[in-house]
Amino acid sequence: MTTPIKPTSKILIVGSGVFGISTALWLARAGYADVTVLDMQDTASAAYDPGAGIDSASADLNKIIRFSYGTEIEYQRLATEAAGLWEEWNRDIASVAADADTAADTPERKALLSTLLRGDGDGGDESKLKLWWNVGMLRMSCKEEFGSFEMETLENMEKEGIRDYQFRSDDEQDLARAKERGWAHKLDPCQRQERFGVHKAVLDSTAGFVAAYKSCAWAQYLAKKAGVKTLLDPVRGKVVDITSKDNHPVAVTADGVEHVADLIVVAGGGWTPSLLPEVKDLLETTAGSVATIQLPKERTDLWERFAPENHPVITWGMRQEKEVYSFPRDENGVIKVGWRKTKWTNFKDVHGGHRLSVPKTAHVTEEKEDRIPAQAMEGIKEYITLNFPELVSLGIASTKLCWYTDSIDNSFVVDFVPGRPGVAVCSGGSGHGFKFLPILGREVVKILEGKGPNTVYGQMWKWRAGEPLKERNGLEEGEGGPRVLSKQTMVGTADWDATAA
Ligand SMILES: Cc1cc2nc3c(=O)[nH]c(=O)nc-3n(C[C@H](O)[C@H](O)[C@H](O)COP(=O)(O)OP(=O)(O)OC[C@H]3O[C@@H](n4cnc5c(N)ncnc54)[C@H](O)[C@@H]3O)c2cc1C
């Protein structure tokens, strides 16, 4: 960075996902008066709803919120701070809804509420507007014993004084505590003990999920209220190049307009490496595989059973061999299931003669994709068949690739870009960034103000290309690796019946 930012500095943020919108919100709250968020998708009028065609990691139905981070204590502390804000956001959005149709109502509120409350789900307005759901997360082993990672996690929780909130399915004291605190009914939702004679799982009663796209819409509403401007448009908001002029960074949009700024923050999620190829040794764009199941309206037994009150978030065989997760149903009866064992890559020639992995999505990218690799479908079907056999005959309602921005070490990357005065990168969510939405920007602002070297997160998220690392999170594989999408057989909803479990 050439000159430090001032309250009047012109700041452009590319991307209105979790990383961009949280940064914008906290910049405005810190007194920066000229902050504009650009996005090539109109995340505002669609309220980030993936069902309305918004394609990004943040624009999703739901995301897991956990506050336990094993030995990564700094992330655990930040997640715990975020927890307080998630509670606050739940209260605030409810009170905004209460103000609707009163004199205190505003056009922004009306727009937000009408988008979030649309649909004909039977959850009632209250559940449609609740962002953070503390429904618990059940970490199920796929074997007859716990894996070593689970045992280490429990040991660390003991040391941190938070073991009390974890309930082991095979520990009498834990079971008694779970019963006393009203969590016992979530300990074996798949009746594994009865059906297989063994069930090894730990229920984390501090965890749960957030309604992801609604949370982003709320964050954008707060950011605008704090003074953030937006330019959300497939042409006028799409940044095609970042250059410089008279020592100022310039974002060139698809309509040819040059937006001259004092600071440009690139928070483009999976599109970040193609816009800023310098990050290629630090970040890689990869895809997770997701499917949904639609519960029929008339199956009230299933609606009841998979309701958030009765059903936790579940992970199955994480750090073992399965790596599947699922959520309770939403207010429209949709259950999301994700397979994260392999993160896929999609190499293409991009601007500047680079060949990098880039997103391939159902709506936004030139080449469209709404299927998932057969291997992922098999993993999802195996999970459903073994754990929820009554859902198999329902088939699946949708499949999609959801694009991560993985960093070499799974830690975020927030720093100025070497050799590009006035340009910073804010990305590298690596599959765990969502939970920090309410707080992430607070730490990003410190880094943008040049205080990064003196802060814990500034140190953790600094530019670290070229530093020696034992593992590089698959970045070293490149196009020759086995995760490349073009090497996979792709399947969609119609292939469910033929998929082997
Ligand atoms: C499958 C999957 C599961 C996950 N599960 C969890 C979880 O359970 N819990 C958790 O905490 N985290 C989870 N994450 C991580 C979390 O979703 C991400 O860390 C976070 O959403 C990333 O946000 P982002 O702003 O970096 O990117 P995105 O959400 O992808 O947003 C990027 C935005 O930039 C815009 N953009 C890109 N390029 C341009 C351009 N050139 N011009 C203008 N606009 C542009 C895009 O349109 C988009 O709106 C998961 C991620 C994935 C992929």
Task: Provide a descriptive summary of the structure in words.
The chain is an alpha+beta fold and 501 residues long. It has a domain at 137-207 and 284-406 and 489-495: D-Amino Acid Oxidase, Chain A, domain 2, CATH 3.30.9.10. The protein has 13 helices and 24 strands. The protein has helices at residues 18-29, 73-99, 107-116, 124-129, 148-160, 172-180, 192-196, 212-225, 272-275, 300-305, 374-387, 440-448, 456-460, and strands spanning 10-14, 34-39, 62-65, 132-133, 137-140, 166-168, 201-204, 208-211, 229-232, 239-245, 248-253, 258-260, 263-266, 283-294, 313-316, 324-326, 334-344, 347-350, 354-357, 372-373, 398-407, 413-416, 423-427, 490-491. It has an eight-stranded mixed sheet. The relative contact order is 0.17. Bound molecules: flavin-adenine dinucleotide. Residues 14-20, 38-41, 43, 56-58, 63-64, 237-239, 267-271, 275, 288, 290, 338, 402-405, 427, 429, 431-435 line the site of flavin-adenine dinucleotide (FAD).
Gist of the model:
With 501 residues, the protein is α+β, with helices and mostly antiparallel strands. The protein is built from 13 helices and 24 strands.
Structural class: alpha+beta
CATH class descriptor of the domain at 137-207 and 284-406 and 489-495: Alpha Beta
Largest sheet: 8 strands, mixed
Q: Which residues sit in consecutive blocks of at least 5 with pLDDT less than 50?
A: none
Q: What's the architecture of the domain at 137-207 and 284-406 and 489-495, going by CATH?
A: 2-Layer Sandwich
Beginning-to-end CA distance, first to last residue: 53 Å
Number of helices: 13
The name of the CATH superfamily of the domain at 137-207 and 284-406 and 489-495 reads D-Amino Acid Oxidase, subunit A, domain 2
What's the rounded overall pLDDT mean?
93
Q: Could you name the CATH topology of the domain at 137-207 and 284-406 and 489-495?
A: D-Amino Acid Oxidase, Chain A, domain 2
Secondary structure: helix percent:
25-40%
Strand order of the largest sheet: 6-7-5-15-16-17-14-21
Would you report the number of β strands?
24
Identify every distinct bound molecule in the structure, by name, code or SMILES: flavin-adenine dinucleotide
Strand content: 15-25%
What is the CA-atom radius of gyration, in angstroms?
A: 22 Å
Outline type: globular
